[in-house]
From TrEMBL:
<dbReference type="GO" id="GO:0000166">
    <property type="term" value="F:nucleotide binding"/>
</dbReference>
<dbReference type="InterPro" id="IPR036291">
    <property type="entry name" value="NAD(P)-bd_dom_sf"/>
</dbReference>
<feature type="domain" description="Thiazolinyl imine reductase-like C-terminal">
    <location>
        <begin position="149"/>
        <end position="245"/>
    </location>
</feature>
<protein>
    <submittedName>
        <fullName>Thiazolinyl imide reductase</fullName>
    </submittedName>
</protein>
<dbReference type="Pfam" id="PF21390">
    <property type="entry name" value="Irp3-like_C"/>
</dbReference>
<dbReference type="InterPro" id="IPR048655">
    <property type="entry name" value="Irp3-like_C"/>
</dbReference>
<dbReference type="Pfam" id="PF01408">
    <property type="entry name" value="GFO_IDH_MocA"/>
</dbReference>
<dbReference type="InterPro" id="IPR010091">
    <property type="entry name" value="Thiazolinyl_imide_reductase"/>
</dbReference>
<dbReference type="InterPro" id="IPR051450">
    <property type="entry name" value="Gfo/Idh/MocA_Oxidoreductases"/>
</dbReference>
<feature type="domain" description="Gfo/Idh/MocA-like oxidoreductase N-terminal">
    <location>
        <begin position="6"/>
        <end position="122"/>
    </location>
</feature>
<dbReference type="InterPro" id="IPR000683">
    <property type="entry name" value="Gfo/Idh/MocA-like_OxRdtase_N"/>
</dbReference>
Length: 362
Protein backbone atom coordinates (compact mmCIF):
# COMPACT_ATOMS: atom_id res chain seq x y z
CA UNK A 1 0.00 0.00 0.00
CA UNK A 2 3.05 2.27 -0.01
CA UNK A 3 4.13 4.62 2.78
CA UNK A 4 1.96 4.94 5.86
CA UNK A 5 -1.04 7.22 5.44
CA UNK A 6 -1.26 10.07 7.96
CA UNK A 7 -4.77 10.09 9.44
CA UNK A 8 -6.84 12.31 11.70
CA UNK A 9 -10.10 11.27 13.35
CA UNK A 10 -12.90 13.82 13.72
CA UNK A 11 -15.19 12.94 16.61
CA UNK A 12 -14.53 10.82 19.68
CA UNK A 13 -17.92 9.22 20.39
CA UNK A 14 -18.15 6.44 17.80
CA UNK A 15 -14.77 7.78 16.68
CA UNK A 16 -13.33 5.63 19.48
CA UNK A 17 -13.77 2.63 17.14
CA UNK A 18 -11.72 4.40 14.47
CA UNK A 19 -9.00 5.25 16.97
CA UNK A 20 -8.81 1.59 17.98
CA UNK A 21 -8.67 0.60 14.31
CA UNK A 22 -5.71 2.88 13.62
CA UNK A 23 -3.94 1.54 16.71
CA UNK A 24 -4.40 -1.98 15.30
CA UNK A 25 -3.08 -1.01 11.86
CA UNK A 26 0.05 0.99 12.70
CA UNK A 27 1.96 -0.64 9.85
CA UNK A 28 -0.26 1.11 7.29
CA UNK A 29 -1.64 4.20 9.08
CA UNK A 30 -0.26 6.84 11.43
CA UNK A 31 -2.69 8.71 13.66
CA UNK A 32 -1.50 12.33 13.57
CA UNK A 33 -4.31 14.12 15.35
CA UNK A 34 -7.86 14.28 16.65
CA UNK A 35 -10.31 16.92 15.43
CA UNK A 36 -12.96 17.74 18.02
CA UNK A 37 -14.67 20.52 19.93
CA UNK A 38 -12.20 20.15 22.76
CA UNK A 39 -14.25 18.33 25.36
CA UNK A 40 -12.53 16.79 28.34
CA UNK A 41 -12.99 13.33 26.81
CA UNK A 42 -11.45 14.44 23.49
CA UNK A 43 -8.48 15.93 25.33
CA UNK A 44 -8.07 12.66 27.22
CA UNK A 45 -8.18 10.69 23.95
CA UNK A 46 -5.52 12.92 22.38
CA UNK A 47 -3.34 12.49 25.46
CA UNK A 48 -3.87 8.71 25.47
CA UNK A 49 -2.82 8.37 21.81
CA UNK A 50 -0.09 10.98 22.09
CA UNK A 51 -1.38 13.22 19.28
CA UNK A 52 -2.42 16.87 19.00
CA UNK A 53 -6.04 17.93 19.47
CA UNK A 54 -7.35 20.32 16.81
CA UNK A 55 -10.61 22.24 17.06
CA UNK A 56 -10.99 23.45 13.46
CA UNK A 57 -10.04 22.39 9.94
CA UNK A 58 -7.94 25.54 9.61
CA UNK A 59 -5.69 24.36 12.46
CA UNK A 60 -4.78 21.12 10.70
CA UNK A 61 -1.25 20.84 9.30
CA UNK A 62 -0.70 20.21 5.59
CA UNK A 63 0.76 16.77 6.28
CA UNK A 64 -2.59 14.97 6.58
CA UNK A 65 -3.59 12.32 4.03
CA UNK A 66 -6.93 11.01 5.32
CA UNK A 67 -9.64 12.31 7.65
CA UNK A 68 -12.15 9.92 9.23
CA UNK A 69 -15.26 12.03 9.83
CA UNK A 70 -17.17 10.32 12.63
CA UNK A 71 -19.49 13.25 13.39
CA UNK A 72 -23.25 13.15 12.81
CA UNK A 73 -24.18 14.24 9.30
CA UNK A 74 -27.10 16.49 8.39
CA UNK A 75 -29.24 13.34 8.02
CA UNK A 76 -29.13 13.02 11.81
CA UNK A 77 -28.85 16.69 12.69
CA UNK A 78 -25.08 17.19 12.79
CA UNK A 79 -22.35 19.13 10.94
CA UNK A 80 -20.40 16.09 9.71
CA UNK A 81 -20.98 16.68 5.99
CA UNK A 82 -19.97 20.35 6.14
CA UNK A 83 -16.82 19.25 7.95
CA UNK A 84 -16.15 16.60 5.30
CA UNK A 85 -16.53 19.15 2.51
CA UNK A 86 -14.08 21.57 4.14
CA UNK A 87 -11.53 18.78 4.47
CA UNK A 88 -12.03 17.60 0.88
CA UNK A 89 -11.54 21.09 -0.51
CA UNK A 90 -8.17 21.12 1.23
CA UNK A 91 -7.23 17.97 -0.67
CA UNK A 92 -7.63 15.65 2.34
CA UNK A 93 -9.25 12.31 1.49
CA UNK A 94 -12.34 11.60 3.61
CA UNK A 95 -14.00 8.48 4.98
CA UNK A 96 -17.36 9.56 6.45
CA UNK A 97 -19.41 7.44 8.82
CA UNK A 98 -23.00 6.74 7.76
CA UNK A 99 -25.82 7.70 7.51
CA UNK A 100 -25.42 10.49 4.95
CA UNK A 101 -28.25 12.05 2.89
CA UNK A 102 -27.77 11.60 -0.86
CA UNK A 103 -27.70 15.38 -1.41
CA UNK A 104 -24.89 15.66 1.13
CA UNK A 105 -23.03 12.89 -0.69
CA UNK A 106 -23.40 14.87 -3.93
CA UNK A 107 -21.99 17.99 -2.24
CA UNK A 108 -19.08 15.99 -0.81
CA UNK A 109 -18.31 14.48 -4.21
CA UNK A 110 -18.24 17.97 -5.71
CA UNK A 111 -15.89 19.15 -2.95
CA UNK A 112 -13.74 16.05 -3.55
CA UNK A 113 -13.39 16.98 -7.22
CA UNK A 114 -12.40 20.51 -6.27
CA UNK A 115 -9.72 19.21 -3.93
CA UNK A 116 -8.74 16.26 -6.16
CA UNK A 117 -9.44 13.97 -3.23
CA UNK A 118 -11.20 10.65 -2.66
CA UNK A 119 -14.45 10.45 -0.68
CA UNK A 120 -16.31 7.42 0.64
CA UNK A 121 -19.16 6.65 3.04
CA UNK A 122 -18.45 3.91 5.56
CA UNK A 123 -21.51 1.75 6.28
CA UNK A 124 -19.30 -0.38 8.60
CA UNK A 125 -21.45 -3.50 8.96
CA UNK A 126 -20.89 -4.98 5.47
CA UNK A 127 -17.17 -5.08 6.32
CA UNK A 128 -17.58 -7.05 9.55
CA UNK A 129 -15.91 -10.44 9.13
CA UNK A 130 -18.98 -12.74 9.45
CA UNK A 131 -20.97 -10.45 7.13
CA UNK A 132 -18.16 -10.52 4.57
CA UNK A 133 -18.13 -14.31 4.76
CA UNK A 134 -21.92 -14.40 4.32
CA UNK A 135 -21.77 -12.01 1.34
CA UNK A 136 -18.99 -14.03 -0.32
CA UNK A 137 -20.91 -17.32 -0.09
CA UNK A 138 -24.12 -15.61 -1.22
CA UNK A 139 -22.31 -14.16 -4.24
CA UNK A 140 -21.16 -17.65 -5.21
CA UNK A 141 -24.70 -19.00 -4.87
CA UNK A 142 -26.11 -16.09 -6.91
CA UNK A 143 -23.62 -16.69 -9.71
CA UNK A 144 -24.16 -20.45 -9.73
CA UNK A 145 -27.91 -20.73 -9.17
CA UNK A 146 -29.48 -17.30 -8.77
CA UNK A 147 -31.32 -16.22 -5.64
CA UNK A 148 -34.98 -17.09 -5.12
CA UNK A 149 -35.50 -14.61 -2.26
CA UNK A 150 -33.88 -12.60 0.51
CA UNK A 151 -35.38 -12.28 3.98
CA UNK A 152 -33.97 -9.54 6.21
CA UNK A 153 -34.63 -8.11 9.67
CA UNK A 154 -33.01 -5.22 11.48
CA UNK A 155 -33.51 -2.30 13.82
CA UNK A 156 -34.23 1.01 12.12
CA UNK A 157 -31.02 2.46 13.59
CA UNK A 158 -29.00 0.14 11.34
CA UNK A 159 -31.29 0.02 8.29
CA UNK A 160 -28.92 2.18 6.22
CA UNK A 161 -26.13 -0.45 6.17
CA UNK A 162 -28.73 -3.19 5.70
CA UNK A 163 -29.63 -1.66 2.34
CA UNK A 164 -25.94 -1.69 1.42
CA UNK A 165 -25.88 -5.41 2.25
CA UNK A 166 -29.04 -6.07 0.24
CA UNK A 167 -27.54 -4.35 -2.78
CA UNK A 168 -24.43 -6.48 -2.54
CA UNK A 169 -26.49 -9.65 -2.09
CA UNK A 170 -28.62 -8.84 -5.14
CA UNK A 171 -25.69 -7.89 -7.36
CA UNK A 172 -26.87 -4.27 -7.41
CA UNK A 173 -29.58 -2.07 -5.99
CA UNK A 174 -31.15 -0.88 -9.24
CA UNK A 175 -33.87 -1.22 -10.13
CA UNK A 176 -35.42 -1.21 -6.68
CA UNK A 177 -39.04 -1.10 -5.60
CA UNK A 178 -40.80 -0.99 -2.22
CA UNK A 179 -44.34 -2.29 -1.75
CA UNK A 180 -46.79 -0.66 0.68
CA UNK A 181 -45.94 -1.09 4.34
CA UNK A 182 -47.74 -3.60 6.53
CA UNK A 183 -48.11 -1.57 9.70
CA UNK A 184 -47.25 -3.17 13.03
CA UNK A 185 -50.39 -3.74 15.10
CA UNK A 186 -51.27 -5.00 18.55
CA UNK A 187 -47.94 -3.96 20.05
CA UNK A 188 -45.94 -5.89 17.44
CA UNK A 189 -42.46 -4.31 17.35
CA UNK A 190 -41.75 -4.96 13.65
CA UNK A 191 -42.98 -3.14 10.55
CA UNK A 192 -43.01 -5.33 7.43
CA UNK A 193 -42.66 -4.47 3.78
CA UNK A 194 -41.74 -6.25 0.58
CA UNK A 195 -39.14 -4.96 -1.83
CA UNK A 196 -37.14 -5.92 -4.88
CA UNK A 197 -33.49 -5.15 -5.63
CA UNK A 198 -32.05 -5.90 -9.07
CA UNK A 199 -34.91 -8.35 -9.65
CA UNK A 200 -34.47 -10.29 -6.39
CA UNK A 201 -37.58 -10.36 -4.15
CA UNK A 202 -36.89 -9.18 -0.60
CA UNK A 203 -38.97 -9.41 2.57
CA UNK A 204 -38.07 -6.78 5.18
CA UNK A 205 -38.94 -6.54 8.87
CA UNK A 206 -37.87 -3.35 10.63
CA UNK A 207 -38.04 -2.76 14.38
CA UNK A 208 -38.96 0.88 13.92
CA UNK A 209 -38.72 1.84 17.58
CA UNK A 210 -36.33 4.05 19.53
CA UNK A 211 -35.79 5.01 23.14
CA UNK A 212 -35.46 8.82 22.99
CA UNK A 213 -33.00 8.98 25.90
CA UNK A 214 -31.10 5.81 24.98
CA UNK A 215 -31.23 5.40 21.18
CA UNK A 216 -28.26 3.03 20.91
CA UNK A 217 -29.91 0.37 23.07
CA UNK A 218 -33.16 -1.64 23.17
CA UNK A 219 -32.86 -3.30 19.75
CA UNK A 220 -34.02 -6.90 19.61
CA UNK A 221 -31.37 -7.49 16.96
CA UNK A 222 -28.99 -5.63 14.67
CA UNK A 223 -29.20 -7.60 11.41
CA UNK A 224 -30.51 -11.04 10.52
CA UNK A 225 -30.39 -12.24 6.91
CA UNK A 226 -31.15 -15.30 4.85
CA UNK A 227 -31.04 -16.01 1.13
CA UNK A 228 -32.78 -18.91 -0.54
CA UNK A 229 -31.60 -20.66 -3.67
CA UNK A 230 -32.17 -23.93 -5.51
CA UNK A 231 -29.94 -26.00 -3.21
CA UNK A 232 -30.76 -24.52 0.18
CA UNK A 233 -30.87 -21.53 2.51
CA UNK A 234 -27.87 -19.48 3.63
CA UNK A 235 -28.40 -17.56 6.88
CA UNK A 236 -26.59 -14.94 8.91
CA UNK A 237 -27.95 -15.55 12.40
CA UNK A 238 -26.67 -12.19 13.66
CA UNK A 239 -24.50 -9.35 12.38
CA UNK A 240 -21.59 -11.00 14.19
CA UNK A 241 -22.32 -14.54 13.01
CA UNK A 242 -22.52 -17.38 12.70
CA UNK A 243 -23.12 -18.10 9.01
CA UNK A 244 -25.34 -21.16 8.57
CA UNK A 245 -26.17 -23.40 5.62
CA UNK A 246 -29.36 -25.50 5.47
CA UNK A 247 -29.36 -27.92 2.52
CA UNK A 248 -32.77 -28.10 0.94
CA UNK A 249 -34.81 -31.14 1.90
CA UNK A 250 -35.62 -33.20 -1.17
CA UNK A 251 -36.29 -36.94 -0.99
CA UNK A 252 -36.96 -39.07 -4.10
CA UNK A 253 -40.04 -41.27 -4.40
CA UNK A 254 -40.25 -45.02 -4.92
CA UNK A 255 -42.54 -46.88 -7.27
CA UNK A 256 -45.38 -46.58 -4.74
CA UNK A 257 -44.98 -42.77 -4.60
CA UNK A 258 -43.63 -42.90 -1.04
CA UNK A 259 -40.62 -40.81 -0.06
CA UNK A 260 -37.38 -42.80 0.10
CA UNK A 261 -36.08 -41.91 3.57
CA UNK A 262 -33.28 -44.48 3.94
CA UNK A 263 -31.21 -46.94 1.95
CA UNK A 264 -30.30 -46.80 -1.75
CA UNK A 265 -31.52 -43.65 -3.45
CA UNK A 266 -31.47 -41.56 -0.26
CA UNK A 267 -27.76 -40.62 -0.33
CA UNK A 268 -28.48 -36.89 -0.44
CA UNK A 269 -30.26 -37.18 2.94
CA UNK A 270 -27.11 -38.47 4.69
CA UNK A 271 -25.56 -35.04 5.23
CA UNK A 272 -26.25 -32.77 8.20
CA UNK A 273 -29.39 -30.64 8.13
CA UNK A 274 -27.38 -27.61 9.29
CA UNK A 275 -23.75 -26.61 8.73
CA UNK A 276 -21.94 -23.75 10.46
CA UNK A 277 -19.61 -22.08 7.95
CA UNK A 278 -17.73 -19.91 10.47
CA UNK A 279 -14.37 -21.15 11.68
CA UNK A 280 -14.97 -19.66 15.11
CA UNK A 281 -18.03 -19.25 17.26
CA UNK A 282 -19.24 -15.67 17.89
CA UNK A 283 -17.38 -13.94 20.68
CA UNK A 284 -18.45 -11.46 23.34
CA UNK A 285 -19.61 -7.90 22.78
CA UNK A 286 -16.25 -6.86 24.24
CA UNK A 287 -14.65 -8.58 21.24
CA UNK A 288 -17.16 -6.96 18.90
CA UNK A 289 -16.24 -3.45 20.08
CA UNK A 290 -12.50 -4.07 20.43
CA UNK A 291 -11.83 -6.27 17.41
CA UNK A 292 -14.63 -6.89 14.89
CA UNK A 293 -15.73 -3.26 14.48
CA UNK A 294 -12.20 -1.80 14.36
CA UNK A 295 -11.22 -4.47 11.83
CA UNK A 296 -14.22 -3.45 9.72
CA UNK A 297 -12.99 0.16 9.78
CA UNK A 298 -9.59 -1.05 8.55
CA UNK A 299 -11.31 -2.75 5.60
CA UNK A 300 -13.14 0.50 4.75
CA UNK A 301 -9.88 2.45 4.97
CA UNK A 302 -8.29 -0.06 2.62
CA UNK A 303 -11.06 0.52 0.06
CA UNK A 304 -10.59 4.28 0.39
CA UNK A 305 -6.88 3.84 -0.24
CA UNK A 306 -7.68 1.97 -3.43
CA UNK A 307 -9.78 4.96 -4.51
CA UNK A 308 -6.86 7.23 -3.65
CA UNK A 309 -4.46 5.16 -5.76
CA UNK A 310 -6.96 4.57 -8.59
CA UNK A 311 -8.93 7.80 -9.21
CA UNK A 312 -11.09 6.03 -11.81
CA UNK A 313 -12.77 4.14 -8.94
CA UNK A 314 -13.94 7.27 -7.14
CA UNK A 315 -17.05 8.01 -9.21
CA UNK A 316 -18.24 4.40 -8.92
CA UNK A 317 -17.81 4.47 -5.14
CA UNK A 318 -19.72 7.74 -4.93
CA UNK A 319 -22.57 6.50 -7.11
CA UNK A 320 -22.96 3.36 -4.99
CA UNK A 321 -23.06 5.43 -1.80
CA UNK A 322 -25.67 7.70 -3.41
CA UNK A 323 -27.91 4.78 -4.38
CA UNK A 324 -27.75 3.28 -0.88
CA UNK A 325 -28.73 6.64 0.60
CA UNK A 326 -31.58 7.17 -1.88
CA UNK A 327 -33.02 3.70 -1.19
CA UNK A 328 -32.76 4.37 2.58
CA UNK A 329 -34.61 7.68 2.21
CA UNK A 330 -37.39 6.05 0.18
CA UNK A 331 -37.77 3.22 2.68
CA UNK A 332 -37.84 5.64 5.62
CA UNK A 333 -40.56 7.63 3.87
CA UNK A 334 -42.68 4.48 3.82
CA UNK A 335 -42.10 3.19 7.35
CA UNK A 336 -42.32 6.66 8.93
CA UNK A 337 -40.80 7.97 12.13
CA UNK A 338 -39.80 5.45 14.80
CA UNK A 339 -42.24 4.81 17.60
CA UNK A 340 -40.96 6.10 20.93
CA UNK A 341 -40.49 3.44 23.59
CA UNK A 342 -39.09 3.55 27.13
CA UNK A 343 -38.55 -0.05 28.25
CA UNK A 344 -36.49 -0.88 31.33
CA UNK A 345 -32.93 -2.19 31.17
CA UNK A 346 -33.29 -5.73 29.78
CA UNK A 347 -32.59 -8.77 31.94
CA UNK A 348 -29.18 -10.32 31.33
CA UNK A 349 -29.20 -13.95 30.19
CA UNK A 350 -26.17 -15.77 28.84
CA UNK A 351 -26.37 -18.80 26.58
CA UNK A 352 -24.74 -20.84 29.31
CA UNK A 353 -27.82 -20.46 31.51
CA UNK A 354 -30.00 -22.01 28.78
CA UNK A 355 -27.56 -24.85 28.08
CA UNK A 356 -27.45 -25.64 31.77
CA UNK A 357 -31.23 -25.69 32.10
CA UNK A 358 -32.35 -29.27 32.82
CA UNK A 359 -34.64 -30.82 30.24
CA UNK A 360 -36.01 -34.33 30.09
CA UNK A 361 -37.48 -35.71 26.86
CA UNK A 362 -41.16 -36.53 27.19
Amino acid sequence: MGPRKRVIVAGTAFGRIYLQALARARADYELVGILSRGTAYSRACAQHYGVPLYQSVEQLPDAVDIACVVVRSGATGGPGSELAQALLRRGIHVLQEHPVHHREIGACMQAARQGQAAYAVNTLYPNILPVRRFLAVAEYLREQQGLAYIDASCNSQVAYPLLDMLGRLSGGLRPWTFAPVQEATGGHPFTSLNASFNGVPVSLRIQNQVHPQDPDNHSFLLHRLEVGCESGVLSLADTHGPVLWNPRLHAPRDSTDRLIMAGPGSERLAGPTLVTLDRQQPGSYHQVFNQLWPDAVIVALGELCRDIDEPARRLRSGLWATEVSMAWREMNGLIGMPALIEPPVPACRSGRSFRARPWTPP
